[in-house]
Amino acid sequence: MPSKAILTPTQELYQKIFGELPKRDIIEADMPALYEVLDTLTDRDKRVIEMCFGLG
After folding, report:
1. Which tens digits make up the pLDDT trace of 18-53?
2. Which H/E stretch holds residue 34?
3. Cα separation of 18 and 45, whole Å?
């Protein structure tokens, strides 16, 4: 049975938003793209995700 990779919170968020793992390490420059997607959510949903993944 293959072991499950341990993802950083940012990698996990990226996977949940985009449906796949990033093809390279996520760098600080990638964060605006993640926040652009988060801005499409309701304030409550955005806050829950930020709290869950330690963002903001």
Report:
1. 887 766 666 666 678 778 888 898 999 889 888 887
2. helix 31-38
3. 17
Cα–Cα distance between 19 and 7 in angstroms, integer?
14
Q: Give the Å distances, CA to CA, from 36 to 6, 17, 40, 47.
A: 25, 11, 7, 14
**pLDDT for res 32:** 82
Burial bucket for residue 20 (CB in 10 Å: 0-12, 13-18, 19+): exposed
Q: Sorting pLDDT into bands at 50, 70 and 90, what band is 1?
A: very low
